[in-house]
Amino acid sequence: MAEQPLRVLLLDGELTFRGSSLLTLRIARGLEKRELETALICTSCSGLDPTLLQNVRLHEIPGLDIPVWGRLVARTIYRDIKEQRPDVIHLLDSRLLPTASRLAEKLKRPLILSVGGHDEAESLILRRPVPQLKAVISVSDSVQTRLPPGSIMDALEKRVILPGVAVPDSAHIDQPLDDDRPPVIGMAGPLEVVKGASFFLRACHRVVEAGHDIRIVIAGSGPEEHSLRQLAASLDLSRRLTFVDGGVSMTGYLSAIDIFCLPSLQQGIGVLMLEAMALGRPVIASGVGGVLSVIQDRENGLIVPPSDSRLLADRISELLQNRETARRLARAGQELAYTRFREERMLEEHISMYREIQQATPRPDETLTVHSRSSSSRDRL
Fold first, then answer.
1. Which domains does the chain have, with CATH numbers?
2. Residue 8 has pLDDT above 90, yes or no
3. Which residues are within 8 A (CB) of 366 and not within 5 positions of it... i.e. 6 or more apart?
4. How far, CA to CA in Å, does 49 sit from each of 15, 37, 68, 217?
5. Packing angle of the helix pair 225-234, 197-209 (nearest 10 deg)
6. CB 100 within 8 A of CB 345
7. What is the DSSP-derived secondary structure letter of residue 50?
8. What are 29-63's pLDDT values in tens digits?
9. pLDDT, position 312
């Protein structure tokens, strides 16, 4: 007898130009393609490239992440879907746990929580059991080790599901470091102190001082943008540097750069790094957190200590001077993305967990529906 299609409700906070948001959207699209009845509710997605939102049943509900509004928002969502309940609720932002747990308890449905970073894992404080919370997914072993100890966490199912990315046919990918133009060195992600963009700019300054004619691209936005622009001006990099925001096409951006840098001071795993590897870009990354479970130094990328702009500059210069080495690392990185980080594998593991968690929960015979708060119409999923 064929298995009944699952109904999955995904909950997330603000979707921005960062790896965790891109991962949420990839999960939502992938589940829908596999004919799971899927809805994604977030607080906001303004500023993202519209192509990232295609084929996603997306609903923006401000207030999910505001504690004083959380109870009211949970009641609103419950009222909209109580007769067409999901089988599983999957929360992808732990800051929304109070709201998500209230909703799951009202709906009498199991709740699964995904944790994507060290800070998020360490700040996950469970003072008392959350009745509907059944499992915690971590994006890497490194993140899972940061989950708080204790009897409440010990009672939950815990699993590592590595992120998945789309790996295109290498025959359709341009080789990095084309001799016909100045090489482009890039990084991507939210412009926050922990992402290490200032060290990246200082490294690029050293590369220019060493005599290399390069272009620099930083994709993302955030609180550090103004100070980074000032730093770039003080280093005389402004004419070489381009900032692009979340409205840019991720694939287009990553395909346009020649060397991808991940200068983070801490990192759960580095979804944007995996995207760059999948597109055949050589990667230089800080040796922190889950990055060390992905990059083997000089085998499929280069590792540098965090906050070491001098050594980062040396590694960028090394790849600029040894382009065949850069292309060898790029090919090895793409092969790793294909063997360990394919989107299909990630989706299969999520669906398997959903089914395991849902087994003891009766499945209602309705279609999952979410009402738009700005319209009287319904989106049938």
1. 7-164+343-380 (3.40.50.2000), 170-340 (3.40.50.2000)
2. yes
3. 83, 84, 85
4. 11, 24, 31, 17
5. 20
6. no
7. G
8. 999 999 899 999 998 887 777 888 888 888 888 87
9. 98
| Higher pLDDT, residue 326 or 122 | 326
User: Under a CB-based contact definition with an 8 Å cutoff, are residues 42 and 49 in contact?
Assistant: no
Exposed/middle/buried for residue 196 (C-beta within 10 Å: 0-12, 13-18, 19+): buried
**Distance (Å, whole) CA 325 – CA 320:** 9
Residue 264 CB neighbour total at 10 angstroms: 26
Alpha-carbon distance of 80 to 371, in angstroms, equals 6
Q: Report CA 30 to chain centroid distance, whole Å.
A: 15
Q: Show the CA angle centred on residue 39, arms to residues 34 and 43, nearest 5°.
A: 140
User: d(Cα 203, Cα 208) in Å, to the nearest integer?
Assistant: 9
DSSP string, 169-226: -GGGSPPSS-TTS--EEEEES---GGGTHHHHHHHHHHHHHTT---EEEEE--STTHH
Query: Which of the four pLDDT bands, split at 50, 70 and 90, describes residue 248?
Result: low
User: Please, is 300 exposed, middle or buried when counting C-beta atoms within 10 Å of its C-beta (0-12, 13-18, 19+)?
Assistant: buried
What tokens does 24 get?
A: 């949420």
Express each pLDDT in 68-106 by its tens digit.
Answer: 666 676 777 777 676 678 999 999 999 899 889 888 988
Q: What is the DSSP letter of 286?
A: E
Burial of 260 (0-12, 13-18, 19+ CB in 10 A): buried
pLDDT tens figures, 272-326: 999 999 999 999 999 999 999 999 999 999 999 999 999 999 999 999 999 999 9
Distance CA 144, CA 159 (A): 8
Give the pLDDT band (50/70/90) at residue 379. Answer: very low
